[in-house]
Specification:
By secondary structure, the chain is mainly β. The chain is built from one helix and eight strands.
Length: 156
């Protein structure tokens, strides 16, 4: 099992997954935050924070997961009221209308939460809404292997 560690995010990648954890260059005095992309297909270069440029490369049997960290000012807001990262998702959590850019047949979900004092969104796309029952075990195997370190501490 391949392991990725960066920016306080630890990902043990199940077979068939690839990924990257990074920060984009800060622009115009803004603060850059960690972003993680995980997929069951080759991630193209230049993928946007929420998978722009990757969803078009997905096949019906593929999964894309984005973990995006927001600034500490988000902690305590209504949007980030959920405590703890989802570690298992169900078929009913997915819908074709949740996608940022809907592509025929795909399905998505988005969760806002605070993990270890850090605010995140988890955005997941399934290559086929019709195959969501078959694809969810793969996605859940990844979610169960993600660890977020507390603010200021490295993941272990």
């Amino acid at each position: 099992m391949a392991v990725l560690r960066a920016h306080g995010i630890d990902a043990r990648l199940p077979a068939g997954f690839e990924g990257r954890i990074f920060r984009r260059a800060a622009a115009h005095g803004s603060v850059s935050r960690p972003v993680a992309h995980f997929a069951t297909f080759p991630l193209p270069a230049g993928v946007g924070d929420f998978g722009n440029g990757a969803v078009t490369a997905m096949g019906p049997d593929d999964v894309l997961v984005v973990l995006f960290e927001y600034g500490p000012e988000s902690v305590g807001t209504a949007l980030f009221a959920r405590q703890g990262m989802p570690t298992s998702l169900e078929p009913g959590h997915f819908s074709p209308i949740t996608l940022r850019r809907g592509l025929g047949g795909q399905s998505g979900t988005q969760w806002f939460f605070v993990e270890q004092g850090r605010p995140f969104t988890l955005y997941a796309v399934l290559g086929s809404h019709a195959k969501r029952f078959a694809l969810l075990p793969r996605l859940n195997s990844l979610l169960g292997n993600l660890v977020v370190a507390p603010v200021g501490e490295p993941a272990s």
